Amino acid sequence: MVIQICIGSACHLRGSYDVIEKMKALIAADNLEDKITLKASFCLGRCGEYVTVKADNEFIDGVNAATIEKIYNEILKPKALKG
Amino acid sequence: MDRVFDTKVQVLKYQVLKSVIRRAYEGERQLDLAPYEIPKEVVPGPKTDMRCCIYKARAVVEERVRMAMGGDKDNPNIIECLPVACDECPIETYYVSPACRGCINHKCADVCPAGAITIKGQAKIDPEKCLDCGKCAKACPYKAIIELSRPCVTSCKIGAIKIDDDKKAQIDNDKCVMCGACVYSCPFGAITDKSYVLDCVKILKDAEKNGTKVYALIAPAIVSQFKYAKIEQIVEGIKMLGFHNVIETAMGADITLHKELSELKDVDKLTTSCCPSFVMYIEKHFPKLKQYISHSPSPMVEAAQLIKRTNPDSKVVFIGPCTSKKYEYKLEKTGGAVDCVISFEELQAFLDARDIDVSSLPESPLNNASFYGRIFAKSGGIAQGVKELKEKYGITKEICPIALNGLEEIRLALLKMNVNKLPENFIEGMACVGGCLNGALCLHHEEKNVRDVDKYGQQAKEKDISNSVALYNMTLDK
Which domain holds residue B189? Predict the structure, then answer.
């Protein structure tokens, strides 16, 4: 699974880098580097209240540094394991 | 538009560019007619205050249209002199003005080592004998003898402008480093830069058809430029032109700084690679020093490569204050990372050609780069970054940075460096005095522009370059 994290200005201000760092750590802790590829993208065209994240072709809502761990465990990890 | 530009020559250039861009959107026929119709648009007549008559004024505008449409493709220089526009300013260096009283002492003639001055009512200088030493001008108690010089020649600190047999200015491409000082200084606008706005229009039009994402990479100097609108509104305006997003070149500067710091660990001396005119100056005039030029790509190229790694199908247009960036982006070493370069002047023309009034637009955020990347726009910015971050990079040897502000300072320092007499070992060079914020293609050149750049630096969310570097490394991972 490819996870794209928006690093455009709007998302950067909402904490893209923190999300990237936390996600990297979570993926490493689960040894899922083979299953999940993290990619940066300059604007995914969905500037809003949260950091825009896209898992394969699906937008994941409500991501920021505070929510990423929960979203990773509940949505992203199961999605990646399902393949 | 006087609220925007420094000089009337810039306004003239702007009018031509705006019309060319507008026509490019209206269709091929309108563009074909540009060289015939724009001169009449800009000089409607029956009178003109620009030249001796409307026909000459129109002939000059026609040449400007040619430059706005890309200029002479066979001339690799970005800067061209338009012979028809060159006013053949006088080249006799010293001139006796009517203030000469024809006094009894005539110190001017006494001090002249060449015996070139005779007194007949007034002093008269024989140009055949005159050595251009200037002693007469200094000696005259009335200051009646004045030094005449061509603004282009005076502005060119490396002696790349010569006067040809027809008294027209001529640029020596072997010497010229394309800093653009002559472009800004010629009061007739006879020396000007080629424009690639039509390439930019094509990129945007193609993108509209096939869905390619086009990124605008803006130079940090932009914050001091559009005084009538907020930078966030300019960003929104650029997006309205058809750009997918606007990215700060300063983010590339973060990475350039990271790489230069890494290079510094292993070398004795390093000269910066950000300013293409500085690099070109070393290459053309001090080839012995080429070995010290940093191998780090410039911030423009670094940022463009970053964008292309995240989205290989995208296009990148750099928008800046610089004439030599228009040359740099075509160099082989950039690997085609940048697809087009336009200037701030051209951006203003572009926005107006598309009837976008930025001052009425909502704000779109701009925040990718760090404090250090943003202050690259001013002279001394890179040197400051190196000084403050060297410990983080485990550089234990003494780093002694120097910021060379403008080609004159650069010349003096390189002369010393060439004979191993320059004590500093990190040499930042910026061809324009003050740095990019005073670039030749800035809309205006004010001393206080540096405050805007400092403020913009302070507003960066990232206080140092580590996150930009982490992102850079992440995009390298496959």
Answer: 71-89+150-194
Q: Are B366 and A8 an interchain contact pair (Cβ–Cβ within 8 Å)?
A: no
pLDDT in tens, B103-121: 999 999 999 999 999 998 9
Judging contacts by C-beta atoms under 8 Å, the chain A residues touching residue B461 are: 12-13
Of B17, B465, B450, residue with least CA distance to B225: B450
Mark yes or no for CB contact B247/A17 under 8 Å. Answer: no
| Interface check B217 vs A, CB under 8 A | no
Would you say how long chain B is, in residues?
Answer: 478
Q: What is the CATH number of the domain that holds A18?
A: 3.40.30.10
Interface residues from chain A to B (CB-CB < 8 Å): 7-10, 12-13, 17, 20-21, 38-43, 45
In terms of DSSP H, where are the helices of B197-230? 197-210
The residue among B274, B258, B248, B216 whose CA lies nearest residue B459 is: B248
Domain membership of residue A28 as a residue range: 2-82
* Tokens 């780093």 sit on residue: B399
| Chain B residues inside the 8 Å CB shell of A8 | 245, 247, 368
The pLDDT tens digits for B134-153 are: 999 999 999 999 988 899 99
